[in-house]
Amino acid sequence: MSGSAFYNVTHDDTQAIDDCWNRIGVHGDKSCPLLAEHIHCRNCSVYSAAATRLLDRYALRQDDRDLAYAPVDADIVTRSLLMFRLGEEWLGLTTRSLVEVAPLQPIHSLPHQRSRALLGVANVRGALVACLSLVDLLGLEPGSAAPSGGRVMPRMLIVGAQGGPVMMPVDEVDGIHAIDERILANASQSTGKYTRGVLQYKGRNLRWLDEEQLLSAVSRSLS
């Protein structure tokens, strides 16, 4: 989805939090008297408190907001999957759960992390967004495989979780592919966490993620 769609998702959250870092901090006119002491807004307790309020809101709103995607039409012939890489493993996630693929952003850790998977928060166009480790959520081994050729750019996946958008860094994004439902139906069973199955696609073993289970795990990590 476009940047305007991301704005619609985050607009209410941004309005509710005093984003002083965008007005008088490092992203504003730098007139904040605390900058001399903290050097950067991410080192300030005000920034950390805003991030904590954001995470509190994820937990409070989980029961009040529907997942940010529509049901799948059972009669469709193909299904769109975003193919991406974590370490040496290629994974597929249905695009209905995807808000945006964004450039890699600096992640600012929080003094009191709520879960092992929570990496911290990132500032995306003025909005604080929680960042989670998909490697930890899926129980994968960390590390980045050598690229097969060409320039590889790590990306951030922004997905529509209950309570608001969440970012997850990945090592590489291959793109969106329309995959025949018959191929998906014949995917082999997998014992991997939050996985519907494993299929052969374009010469790769593609792990097809169960987005409902995955987004439920994301919500639990933010509670």
TrEMBL record:
Keywords: Cytoplasm
PANTHER family: CHEMOTAXIS PROTEIN CHEW, CHEMOTAXIS SENSOR HISTIDINE KINASE-RELATED
GO annotation, biological process: chemotaxis; signal transduction
Predominant cellular place of this UniProt entry's protein: cytoplasm
Taxon lineage: Bacteria, Pseudomonadati, Pseudomonadota, Gammaproteobacteria, Pseudomonadales
All residue ranges annotated as the CheW-like domain in the record: 78-220
InterPro entries: CheW, CheW-like_dom_sf, CheW-lke_dom
UniProt-annotated location(s): Cytoplasm
Protein known as: Chemotaxis protein CheW
Top-level lineage group: Bacteria
GO cellular component terms, A-Z: cytosol
Pfam family, one: CheW
